[in-house]
Amino acid sequence: MSAAARLRAPARWRWWEALLWLLMWAAPLVFAPHAALINEVAILALFALSLDLILGYAGIVSLGHTAYFGVGAYGAALFAKHVMPDPLLGLAVGTALGGVLGLLTSPMIVRGTDLTRLMVTMGIALVLLELANKFDDLTGGMDGLQGVVMGPLLGHFEFDLGARVASFYSLTVLFIVFLLLRRVVNSPLGYSLQALRDNRLRLSAIGLSVNARLAAVYTLGAALAGTAGALLAQTTAFASLDVLEFHRSADVLLALVIGGAGWLWGGIVGAVAFKVLHDFVSSFTAQYWNFWIGLFLVLLMLVGRERLFKPWSWFRRRGGA
Amino acid sequence: MLTLLFDGVAYGMLLFVLSLGLAVTMGLMNFINLAHGAFAMAGGYLLVLLMQRWDWPFLLCLPAAFIVTAALGALFERTLYKPMYGKPHLDQVLFSIGLTLMAVATVDYVMGSQQQNVQLPPMFLHRFEFGHGAWQLGMGAYRLFIIVLCVALTLLLQALLTRTRFGSRLRAAVDDPRVAAGLGIPVNRVFLVTFALGSGLAGLGGALGADMLGMDPTFPLKFMVYFLIVCAVGGTSSLTGPLVAALVLGVADVMGKYYLPKLGAFIVYVLMIVILLWRPHGLFSREGGR
């Protein structure tokens, strides 16, 4: 293998990736009664993907990623209600709002330690939640924003109750974002981000501006979270305080951790696994779902991802140092 | 006005005792333990159980809550927390969130999701009043008790930290665990004792606050943010930092809820973000703004 081919190798499509995408496209047709669930999975996957970009690639820990999700959701819902009901324009508005908020808040997350970053991201989400609660004549407060009517997609696909159009819509957006992020993480910017995650000091010693890169990737991640939020608001024609609650930040983090941060499929695999697990556990103990997810997290962290998912490695000795 | 200030101080002292253990584990072991509130909840529920089922007197329940949660903390430190010390912060956060979720669901399952009521002994129901008008000061006997107890605890801890051999070992381990270990200080054992003490304090705080803060299964999640604010804002290198942060937070929260009911929490969070931007390592840390 030549050096150029080896450098290009991570960016190449593999056969199983194409196959997985075909399977995902077929899913709403095969499991038509579960189209709503597939839609939710696609949105969570998109959300997790946006977190993967900032956490898995740039190494920014965040407990408040839902701030951007919520802004995108409210933005899209309010846009549809008060300006015009076209979904694609609304999607653009949600994305833009998420991005603007990300840009505005990015100076706050480039400073300090992990703890500071956790607190500041969580604080941003909490501040937005309080604001949404306070301005309840705009956001509908506790009751949620009612009366959002979406127009047909591209002029002639109406959103139906079976969520079939919605699931295809979300899957398409997810696919486009996936393609975009593939380009981004395999670009020089993407490589510099991974270098930055691994050793920030060295990167600045090479002469790259750490803060500008962090700000850029944080803005992009926030914008994509806004897209996910807008998708949720549009496909459910509803937005409530729930989109800003802490549990959403925790859920998306969890989905990403299950799938594995630092590779693009992590968000998608994690979202599927998380939703399926959630559906499965809730079917027999809806109230105590928390316990099982907590147990799963503790085990995952104690045993380690590698060993939990590959039990055959338990008996192998660690080679070398 | 003064009454509000007094209530705020009592609330702040309570928050201080509750978050102290967290501050110590963060400073000492560099471990972000979001499950700290679960220990506080354990203390609170123990108090409720002992008082309701076995009719223990209130004052006897407080030390019991301290001892039992301290033992629980020591047990967990040895079995669950120890392997997590060297891991990245994100892993620690997820691990302790997992523990918290388990604790919440377990308590919900065993005790039910309703809020537990605490029957305070009659001597605490009294209320002292001084002055009149805008400067009237009403002091609930129970809140007075909390303040006195917490001040005593703070002085005791300060003495423990500065005057005893254990204290100097602890401070050495906080400053640089590797050098401390090199000097022959049993850092692991110091960690264990400190973790147990911190958990015990959380349990005591939970028991004390069961009446004021309200005990229900979501307690660890509800107050997690507050504990974290105290530690992040106060810094983790001394007792003074968290104490001042807890007092400011307590007073700001009580005043905010009274004067601006819809904006109270908002002000607290914005204040936290601003302080953290100004001094990312906390108000009283030695690292300064970086």
Short description:
The complex is a heterodimer of chains A (321) and B (290). Chain A has 321 residues and is an all-alpha fold.
Layout of strands and helices, then pairs:
The complex is a heterodimer of chains A (321) and B (290).
Chain A lengths: L2 H6 L6 H16 L4 H23 L8 H17 L4 H23 L4 H21 L1 H4 L24 H22 L2 H11 L1 H7 L3 H27 L9 H14 L4 H21 L4 H15 L1 H5 L12
Helix pairs in contact in A: 2-8, 3-8, 3-11, 3-12, 3-13, 4-5, 4-6, 4-11, 5-11, 9-10, 9-11, 12-13
Chain B lengths: L1 H28 L6 H18 L4 H24 L7 H23 L15 E4 L6 E4 H23 L1 H11 L1 H6 L4 H27 L5 H16 L5 H20 L4 H15 L12
Antiparallel strand pairs in B: 1-2
Helix pairs in contact in B: 1-5, 1-8, 1-9, 1-10, 2-3, 2-8, 2-9, 3-8, 5-6, 6-8, 9-10, 10-11
Question: What keywords describe this structure?
Answer:
heterodimer, A: 321 residues, mainly alpha, ABC transporter involved in vitamin B12 uptake, BtuC, disordered C terminus, B: mainly alpha, 2 strands, 3% strand, globular
Summarize the structure in words:
- The complex is a heterodimer of chains A (321) and B (290).
- Chain A has 15 helices and no strands.
- Chain A has helices spanning 3-8, 15-30, 35-57, 66-82, 87-109, 114-134, 136-139, 164-185, 188-198, 200-206, 210-236, 246-259, 264-284, 289-303, 305-309.
- Chain A starts with a helix and ends in a 12-residue tail after the last helix.
- Mean pLDDT of chain A is 81; it is low at 317-321.
- Chain B is mostly helical and 290 residues long.
- Chain B has one domain (2-216).
- In chain B, 73% of the residues lie in helices and 3% in strands.
- Chain B has helices at residues 2-29, 36-53, 58-81, 89-111, 141-163, 165-175, 177-182, 187-213, 219-234, 240-259, 264-278, and strands at residues 127-130, 137-140.
- Chain B has a two-stranded antiparallel ribbon.
- The model of chain B has no long low-confidence stretch (mean pLDDT 78).
- Classes of the chains: A mainly alpha (321), B mainly alpha (290).
- The interface between A and B is large, with 41 and 44 residues.
